[in-house]
């Protein structure tokens, strides 16, 4: 896939799809230190690469993380989220035994919910106006 100023090409499409993801820890417990977040960023970059996606930005705090991911249209956001949360939870538990006390019920680090928002492109109002102004066939 080529990257030309944020626009990527696949076999049958041209796309620029970004999603803003936010994951929170189970019960919003204060879990992460800088060392955890640094390792988590690398883990999440690797997971994204497996999906032919790119982690553009990553940041977090003691009880949540934010990701900006550029992903191809063939990738379902829910599937990507499931992998990001599952792999990061498993690997962090393996690599940082001190986190074990923060894992609750069925060894879950993350809350079952998440935020996902589409990002980029023109504002909705501009797109709506553009579509409204298209000529309809006679």
Automatic annotation (TrEMBL):
Gene3D superfamilies: Transposase IS200-like. GO terms for biological process: DNA transposition. This is IS200/IS605 family transposase. It holds the Pfam family Y1_Tnp. Residues 14-134 form the Transposase IS200-like domain. InterPro entries: Transposase_17, Transposase_17_sf. It comes from Catellatospora methionotrophica. GO terms for molecular function: DNA binding; transposase activity. It comes from the Bacteria.
């Amino acid at each position: 896939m080529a990257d030309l100023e944020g626009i990527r090409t696949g076999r049958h499409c041209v796309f620029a799809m970004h999603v803003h993801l936010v994951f929170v820890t189970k019960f919003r417990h204060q879990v992460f230190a800088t060392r955890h977040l640094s390792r988590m960023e690398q883990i999440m970059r690797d997971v994204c690469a497996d999906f032919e996606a790119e982690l553009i930005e990553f940041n977090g705090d003691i009880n949540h993380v934010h990701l900006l991911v550029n992903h191809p249209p063939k990738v379902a956001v829910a599937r990507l989220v499931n992998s990001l949360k599952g792999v990061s939870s498993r690997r962090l538990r393996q690599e940082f035994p001190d986190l074990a006390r923060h894992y609750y019920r069925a060894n879950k680090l993350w809350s079952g919910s998440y935020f996902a928002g589409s990002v980029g492109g023109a504002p909705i109002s501009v797109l709506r106006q553009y579509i409204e102004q298209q000529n309809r066939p006679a």
